[in-house]
Structure formats: C-alpha cells, structure tokens
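Feature request disguised as a bug: please show the residue count (429) next to Zinc carboxypeptidase A 1 in the output. Example input:
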Amino acid sequence: MKLLVLLTLSVLVTAKVSYRNYKLYKIIPKDEQALQFLKNLEDSSTELLRYQFWNEVTEVGNEVSLMVAPDTQNLIEAALNESNVAQSVIMNDVQEVIDQENPKWRSGEANPVDWTVYNTLEEINNWLEQMVQEFPNQLEILRPGKTGQGRDIVGVKLDFSPNVRKKTIFVESNIHAREWITSATTTYILDQFFRITDVEQRNIIEAYTWYFFPVMNPDGFVYSHETNRMWRKTRTRYNIFCYGADPNRNWGYQWMNGGASQNPCSDIYAGPEPFSEPSVRVMKEFIETIAEDMVAYLDFHSFSQMLLLPFGHTIDHLNNYDEMKEIGRIAMDELEEVYGTDYVVGNVAETIYIAAGSSMDWVKGEFNTSIAVTYELRDKGSYGFLLPADQILPTAEETLVSVFSILREYRIRHPEDGDESTTSNVNLI
Ligand SMILES: [Zn+2]
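Example output, currently without the count:
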C-alpha cells in the first residue's frame, strides 16, 4: 500500500500535466451577486487543479478567464447558470493551444534565441553568455545567488561606457513562471540595444547602466517548461500537495496587505513571511546594491495589456503618480501606433486589483525610484498566457518603442536626472 502511494506520488511529481479538454471560459460578472460567486470560487481553488483563474476576480463588468477540467465543467456551468453568471467558451481544449503555442515545443533540440520560439532557461542563459563573450567590454554576466532548487539566477549588466558613473535601470521578467512572452520581450530589448543606430535612441541606451534579469524565477520557469505549462509560483515545498509561493506577493513592502493569500495551495500564496523565497531574497539583496543610482525599474508580466504604476495596496495616488500616468499614457499611445495594441494605464490597485507584496511596490516604497512600472503584455485573454510564438516579435517591437517613450518623456521633464554618458565606439551587430 505504502509503495503504491509512493508510486502514485512520483507519477504526480514527474508526469507532464495535460490540459486535454480543459475549457477556458470568459466570464463577465454583471452584478454584485455574480462577483461574489466568482470570488467564493476563487477563494476555494485548490491544489487539485479542477479549475484555475487566469486573472483575478476584481469588479463588476471586468472580464475573468477561468480554466476548468473536463470532469468539473458540468458542475461549474450549472453553478454559474444558477447564479445568473453568463459565460462563453474561448478555448475548447487548452492542451491543443499549448501544443500549438510554440512551433518547436517537442523537438527536444536546443533552439536559438531568435524570437520565433519560446526558449528554455538553458537556452536563455547560454544566449546571455554568448552575448557577454561577443561584447565583453559592455556586458558582464551576473549570478547574484541561487534559487531554492539550487539554480543560478542569471542576469547581465550592460554599460556602453563603463568608466562613467550613470543612473541605473533594472529590467526584470518571468518572476511569474508561465508568462513566457515576458522573457522573450526583455531578451529582444537587450539584443536590440546592440543593433539600434537611431541617434536619439542610442543616446537613451547609452545614458544608463542597465541590469537585465530575464528569468527572475528560474525554478518555476523550468517547471512551466518541463512539467506544468500553467505554473506561476516558485517551487518551495509547503505541504504534501502544494508547492511554491507567489514571488510577486513575497516582497516586504505592505506584505499581505490585500490581494494575497496565506493558503499554500493558492496561486497568490504570499509565503510564510516576507522574502521567504530564496530567489526573491537573492534579488532583494542584489537590488539593494544598485538602488542608490536607480532611476527606473521595469517589470514585465502578462497578460491584459496594461501599464501599471505603484501601488498595489492602495488606490491613493502617491509620489509622482500623476506625472508617471501622463508619461505612461504617451508611451502607450506610441506603442499602439506600431500594431494597434491598446493599453490601459493606472495604478495596480485602481486598474486591476489590490495586490500587495510585489517587487515594484517594494522598490518604489523602499527607494522611491522615479520610474517604477509593471507591464502586463499581450493579449487581453484570447490566448492569455499561451500567446502564440508568432506574436513574440510584434509584442517585443511595440514594447521597445514604449520603453524609449517612457525614458524620453521622463528625461524631458527631468534633465537634472543626469546624462553623463559619452558616445561609445562599440561595433554594433
Ligand atoms: Zn505576472
């Protein structure tokens, strides 16, 4: 009997999770009763994965994506109908969308980082190493520490004139494991910094020291590639069934002050205490070493097409909110000009939901960094986390345009915030 339990558990641990015939529903709560029904459903979601919300239940009128296992669909549909909650099916078979998302998903071969496929952690880290070899005078590899499972957290420092002290910009992505479009976008941005020849853009690139950490949650990211495509959290074991804390609810600023859970099985489990997750602790300590000169903190998530500003715990407009909202709006209008992708701009609590304990809030709260923004990249829910790989390039291109807009607009308003750079003579790609 014991052996059987062990065998079953080991199958649970190693087999790739299938989402065959899982449906994705689009639900718009039309009144308070419907909203309450969804909130109750959200609160009782469990490790057994019979259903999973892809975005949080927020307000009446705000669309929610809910994925439901085949054997639970009748139950959920009946309950929704009983509570007068209208629903429509946007995916009939989530696994089919997973299988089509990445053209080389099953090839088993190493893929180049060329923004036509979603790359693995190993591919991304190897690419970072290659870039450093190619540009040893501008790039430096960073390994500030290890994850809970002993993986290196790998990033790069980029500086086109390393002998001149500059303001710094920190770029992070994939703190949420399943949001693959985010590391695809930030690696593209890094690559473009060695290709762009436009003078205005080069001035912006070369005015700063940049830190890129494409995969902030390596353990979760590997798990999302190898075992469970829909994984969001870290991989710390918290009980027999439930693993991981939400690394973007684990930072020690207003920790657990709304929009986070103390249930280890929840997708928004904040962890037993602030900075409980080794990967979060490592990055906290690293950011502390560069925070003094930091002028911008750019955090990339998906999905929803939003540019979010601090804070997540309150709807109050704090610090330079009004100015950043204005700059954000200009930048998102310029983003929209590229491919017509429209973004909402606003603070986290007001725009989506109360969500305390994020890395952005910690940076803003701790260091009052002027520019602290979180992107929620494409799309608005048609594919959600499973954005097809042929959308990587357009997403990355439009996003890069907006990053330049944000910095340009900020520099116009704050010329005092430094441009000590001198033109470099690096040979671009
Ligand atoms: Zn996220």
